[in-house]
Amino acid sequence: MTLHPSGLETDESLRRRIEKLERINAALMSHVERSMDQRGSAYSLFQTAIMLEGRVRTRTEELTGLMHRLERSNEALAAAKEEAETANRSKTRFLAAASHDLLQPVNAARLSISALDDLPLPPEARTIAGQVERGLQTIEDLIKTLLDISKLDAGIVRPQLQPVFLPDLLAELAESFKPFAERKGLRLAVRCPDLTVTSDLMLLQRILQNLVSNAIRYTTTGGVVLAARRRAGGIRVDVTDTGCGIAAEERDLVFEEFFRGGARTGSAEEPGLGLGLSIVRRMAQALDHPLTLASRPGHGTRVTLGLPLSLIPAATAPPAPVATRLSGAHVLVVENDASTADAMARLLQNWDARVSTFRDLAGVRGAIEAGAAPPDILVLDYHLDDGACGLDVAAYLRGRSARPLPAIVTTADHSEAIEARVAAAGAELVHKPIKPAQLRSLLTYMLA
C-alpha cells in the first residue's frame, strides 16, 4: 500500500482497492445468484412433483371407480345370464308339457272323427265330418308351428346333420304336392342332378315343404319349379313360381310371424296362417343354410336355399311298410286320457281289431293275473299318471311273453331323450296327434 507523505493512501492505491472490492463483490453476487437459482430449480421440481402426484392420484381414483363399475356391471351381466338360462330351462319344461297338454284333446278329436268317417253316414254328415277334420288339422298345424318356433328361438332344436340325396327328397316333395298343383291347373316340375348335400333331413324337408306350399298357394296360372344345381362350391335349391309376386317393401316382412301381404291375401286361395316363411327362416338359420328371396310383383318369386355339398353318399332308405289286415288282432292300449282311449278303441274296432284299454300298469297287471288273453301288439302312451311311463307296461308284458311283443309308443313330446329311450326298448315312436292312416299302416306292418 502506497502512503502519501501525509500518511494517507494515494489515489492509485485506493483505485486498486476499489477494483479489488468490486471483483470480490461481483464474485459474491454471482455465488448468491447461483445459490438462488439452485434453490428456485429445486422448488420448481418440488412443485412439479406435487402436481404430478395429484394428477396420478386423480387418475388412480378414476381408474378405481371404473374398475368398481366394471365389476358391478359384470355381476349384473352374470346375474342376467343366469336369469336367462333359468328362463330358458323353464321354457323348455313348459314346451314339453304344452306339447302334450295342448295336442292331447286334438288327438282325441281327430281319432273320433276318423272313427266316425269309417261308419256309413249320409252325404251331409260326411261333409260336416270333413269340415271338422280340416278345422282340427288347422288347429294342430298352428299349435305345432308355434311350438316349433318357440323351440327354435330357445335353441332346443339341434340339427342332426347327415348326407341327404337331393333327387329322392325333391321327387318325394313333388309327388306329395302334385295333386294340389293339378287341382289349380299348375305345372310342378323338378330339375335335380345326382347331388348329395349335408343337412338335417327332417328340417330340410320342412323348409322345402313350406316353400313349395307357399308357391302353389299364391300362384294361379303357370307353375312352380323346384330346381337344384351346383354353385360356388355348394348347392343352391331354387323354388320358383309364376305367382303374384311380393312388393319390395314387403320382402323382409314376409319372414315375420302372421304376415300376409296385400297381393297374397287377395288370392282366391284359402289364406294360410302366415307362419310358413317365419319358421323357414328360423330353420335355415339353425342349419346355417343361407336363404334369399327375389321377386317381381305380377311375375313371380324365387326363394333360394344354399346347401353344403356332401362327399359322403346318403344311406339307403328302409323299405316302406307293407299293409296287411288287422282282423282279429288283439291290441292292448294303455292311455291315461279317457277321451283319447275311447277314440282309439273305436278306431281300432272299426278296423276289425279286438281292443283292451287300460289307464296304467296296475290295470294291465290285474287283467293278466285274472286270466285275460295276451295281446298281439301294444299301443302305449309314454306319459302316464303319477310320473309312470308306458314303457314299463311293455317291459312287464314282454317279461311274461314267450314270443316277441311289438309295441308302439305315442307322445306329443319331441325330446331326443324320449326318442332314445323308446328306440332302446325296441318300440316304434308315433308323435301325437296321431294320423290314423299312419297308425294303421304301422300296426299292420308290425303284425305282418
UniProtKB/TrEMBL annotation:
Pfam family membership, one: Response_reg
Reaction catalysis annotation: ATP + protein L-histidine = ADP + protein N-phospho-L-histidine
4-aspartylphosphate PTM positions: 381
Keywords of this entry: Coiled coil, Kinase, Phosphoprotein, Transferase
All residue ranges annotated as the Response regulatory domain in the record: 330-447
Domain Histidine kinase: 97-311
Coiled coil: 63-90
Name of the protein in question: histidine kinase
